[in-house]
Fold this protein.
Amino acid sequence: MTEATATRIDVSALAAIAWLTGTAFLALMVLYVVGLDQGATSIFGSDTHIHEFVHDARHLLGFPCH
């Protein structure tokens, strides 16, 4: 019978900070697209496709949009 051994994952503090920073940035960008992109104040110009795509998610999260 062979014995299974697990390999240890060593995550340095610098790698953890990089992952946490990237995750926080991505979360804030998703929050902007879903919650704050209104079309008139959009970083995408006057195109309302993003607003219409996330319209139901906005209401589910409690963001007013009209």
